[in-house]
Design brief:
This protein has helices spanning 9-38, 43-62, 65-79, 83-106, 108-119, 123-136, 140-155, 160-183, 188-215, 223-227, 233-262, 265-301, 305-341, 345-377, 381-402, 407-438. It is mainly alpha-helical and 441 residues long.
Length: 441
């Protein structure tokens, strides 16, 4: 196998651009769901879909390790030109995804009752949210399989297929939303059914491209490595740590929401507006993290230090350029974005008061986003877990406790320190521990 030349800017963009487009399509779907239910005769429908989307967002984010873990493992197999290993990485991840999905289906009644009881909405909203949940839960096999397929193709440095999968899911969902609700007169059941069908449409596209990709790569399916439990040791080692890391991250975001609620409904609403801008930043910057995952994994698979360091350098350069761009964007049109997101004067005023935290957030957050990609590509999930736990429980929580007298400014400062500690910790650990331990040539 000839030596791979050092990557250039275009190699970063070849992966980052489709993933940025894919990520941007996600909030568009949420807007359509909101739009079609928001024009029905009762606000209970809109509330029910919002609650249902929150529940599934929590469930599916919790198993997003299937995407990240698959990317790192597949990227290293791709870099090593291990075609049998690529088949194993795909097969093992799909089997685990199916088993998790079957568990969710088997436990759907207690899960639904617990989640809806925890939220405690009004009776009408609860009824429609339960209806939504009972239908959409059947998307679980499709959703988790799509996580695997997207991760696997990113590992192959192919971001076009993930884009096709995202667009298939979201466009199918949007069309069926409009058809079921506006044309057929369905309510939340139509919105849920549209999501279920859309996920399986995405799986169909993904599997078709996967079959073609494997036909182009000679090799065998090592069935023993698919059906022998011990063969999953590496897979579970990576993904169990990613799961714990994701739970800690979700805890931090949920804690910000909960503490905002304790400060009053105006502060809660303002924080929700600002968190939308935070998510917008992460959607864009994650594109470069995905590029880092694929390029770093390939470098580790080829055991080349020069390839690894060049990949990190390029991904970091473009991440920082975009982070500065978002800072300037929020300085210039931040107030306009707030006005677009809410027309409530009190919420607008509070959002403007706390907007400076969002202006500096891209430059603070960019390091952790980028290094998430680096660590995933290097399959250093244990370090990701440890650093996330330290940032959450040694930095974020004590900082919040000490800064409570500062009100919501203290909460945002604690959150900013949380994001900063993630980035600083991952950078230091990467230079002092991860890079030397990889022992690349």
């Amino acid at each position: 196998m000839s030596a791979t030349p050092l990557p250039q800017d275009r190699d970063v963009w070849r992966i980052a651009a489709p993933m940025i487009l894919s990520n941007v399509s996600v909030p568009l779907l949420g807007m359509v769901d909101t739009g079609v239910t928001g024009h029905l005769e009762s606000p209970a429908y809109l509330g029910a879909v919002a609650i249902g989307a929150t529940i599934f967002g929590f469930l599916y984010t919790g198993v997003n390790f299937l995407r990240m873990g698959t990317t790192g493992i597949a990227a290293q197999r791709f870099g090593a030109d291990d075609n049998d290993g690529l088949r194993v990485s795909l097969g093992q991840a799909l089997i685990v995804a199916l088993l998790i999905a079957l568990a969710l289906l088997a436990l759907q009644v207690p899960i639904g009752q617990f989640a809806l009881g925890l939220i405690g909405a009004e009776a009408d909203v609860q009824k429609y949210a339960a209806q939504y949940f009972s239908i959409r839960i059947w998307s679980a096999p499709g959703t988790l399989a799509n996580y695997v397929l997207i991760g696997w193709f990113l590992g192959l440095q192919n971001a076009r297929v993930p884009l096709y999968i995202f667009l298939t899911i979201n466009l199918t969902n949007i069309v069926l939303d409009l058809l079921f609700v506006l044309q057929f007169g369905m309510k939340v059941d139509g919105v849920a059914l549209a999501s279920v069908i859309a996920e399986y449409a995405g799986v169909t596209v993904g599997l078709a491209f996967a079959a073609r990709a494997l036909r182009e790569r000679s090799g065998q399916w090592p069935l023993a490595r698919l059906f022998r439990l011990r063969a999953y040791a590496a897979f579970f080692s990576v993904n169990a740590n990613l799961f714990i890391r994701t739970m800690a991250l979700m805890f931090a975001f949920a804690f910000v929401t909960a503490q905002g609620a304790r400060l009053g409904s105006i502060v809660l609403a303002a924080n929700a507006v600002l968190m939308n801008l935070q998510h917008l930043t992460s959607f864009a910057l994650d594109g470069f993290a995905h590029a880092a995952e694929a390029m770093v994994g390939k470098a580790v698979g080829q055991q080349r230090r020069d390839l690894l360091e060049r990949s990190v350098q390029l991904a970091l350069k473009w991440s920082l350029i975009f982070a500065v761009g978002f800072c300037l964007l929020y300085v210039v049109i931040g107030p306009l974005l707030i006005r677009l997101l809410t027309d409530l004067p009190e919420v607008r005023s509070a959002s403007l008061e706390y907007l400076p935290w969002l202006i500096i957030s891209p430059l603070v957050s960019v390091w952790s986003f980028l290094y998430d990609g680096v660590y995933v590509g290097a399959t250093r999930a244990r370090e990701m877990r440890d650093l996330m736990l330290i940032s959450t429980f040694v930095v974020f929580m004590p900082a919040w406790f000490l800064l409570q007298g500062w009100g919501n400014h203290g909460l945002w400062l604690a959150f900013t320190l949380f994001m900063a500690s993630r980035g600083v910790g991952m950078h230091i650990w990467y230079r002092r521990r991860v890079l030397p331990e990889l022992a690349l040539r």
